[in-house]
Amino acid sequence: MRYALFADRVLTPQGIVEKSVVTIADGKIEHVSQNIPTNCEVIRLEHSILMPGFIDLHMHGRAGSDVMDGTIKALQTIASALPETGVVAWVGTTVTAPMNDILCALKNIREFIEMPQQIGAELLGSFLEGPYFSEAHRGSHPTNYLISPSIDHLEDILDHAANTLLRVAIAPEIEGAMKAFDWLAEHKIKTSVAHTDASFEKVTEAFQHGADCGVHLFNGMRGLHHREPGCCGAILYHNMLAELIADGVHVHPAMMQLSYRMAGYQGIALITDCMRAGGLSDGKYQLGIQTVNVINGQARTVEGSLAGSTCSMDLAIRNMVQFAGVPLWEAVQMATFVPAHYLNLSHRLGSIQAGMDASLTVMDDNLHIQDTIIKGEWVFTNNVNRHTCIYQNILI
Ligand SMILES: [Zn+2]
Fold first, then answer.
1. pLDDT tens-digit profile of 8-33?
2. How far is the CA of 367 from the centre of ligand 1 (A)?
3. How far apart are the CA of 308 and the centre of ligand 1, in A?
């Protein structure tokens, strides 16, 4: 199957190109040019911006389902609900819970990925968020199940997840943390610091042991202080990748802008940290073994801690642009190239250029999702400005 998309603006690695054509063949981008092809269908996307599809490194659930449900049906529900938010690929994220529940969720992700064909957003692998956290900044992770890591334990986890385990988060100050960072690095699994009371020095030590990312910057960690830069300070100082929940609730827009000034777009990955209430109305929802109240879109435990979000990636982009004042091209990189590069997937995801997967998102001028395409297949549309045209062989 071969067709071309003719958009008003295309976000390429070089910048925003006006009136450009992206030709797609067999699920891949064949080329990007100013020349309209005559030997295939051309789809005109008016008042639209064509960009790489979004990648969510950290998400728990959506549309009533959660990774911790541990069923194929739950993963399918989430994957099917993500394209309407512009997401083409995601990392299924667990929470602190009884270990058997976590192992079951990890195994379920592996089995889902091993199925012959996925529908909806591509599940890339798993992210173990918990149980290796400290109580001081546990957020919504239940105290009873917080434990220290051991190699035996990690081996058990890897037995269940196999090569689909992409990421593990650990509080660096807990017993066995440095050994765990080393072991995970040897097994080519990316490590992050999270839900931690670690000092600047301790996070620096974790960084030296391979931890290269800070999970939801500012949340679940010791804050910035001029005499003790803490975990936030260490993440920014060492240019570790900073995950950012840009829902306007977890982080003030001024801090979103400050993070961008300090880390640059290259240093920030927008994540949603979305839980099962994403895309649904307020009410009571389950997160792991806990009940969470969602009021005005904010998910909190009964104690009042934020418990994931109901954010979507398109909203995160709008917030970065409209509230934090980040230029559109750079905000989009934080949801596309940056996470693709972090997961070593930038050879096929995260940018619009020849040879990449045709996993693309179309937004209107107000940054609302119009279309989502995954590996060349149209999986979502809301686009009233889309039509097929016959063109002569002309330059735009
Ligand atoms: Zn968290």
1. 999 999 999 999 999 999 999 999 99
2. 27
3. 7
Lowest mean pLDDT among 26-40, 165-179, 360-374: 26-40
User: Does 129 appear as a known binding residue?
Assistant: yes
- Is residue 216 a known part of a binding site? yes
- Domain(s) labelled CATH 3.20.20.140 in the chain stretch across 54-342
Residue 273 annotated among the catalytic residues of the structure: yes
- Provide the pLDDT for residue 390: 58
Q: Topology of 2-52+351-389 in CATH?
A: Urease, subunit C; domain 1 (2.30.40)
Q: Is 238 annotated as a binding residue?
A: no
In angstroms, what is the span from residue 262 Cα to ligand 1's centroid?
22
Take residue 305 and report the two structure tokens written for it: 């801690």
* pLDDT recorded at residue 389: 67
56, 247, 273, 364: the catalytic one is 273
CATH of domain 54-342: 3.20.20.140
Within the chain, all domains assigned CATH 2.30.40.10 are found at: 2-52+351-389
Distance 385 CA to ligand 1 centre (A): 39
> Rounded to the nearest whole angstrom, what is the distance from the C-alpha of residue 220 to the centroid of ligand 1?
7
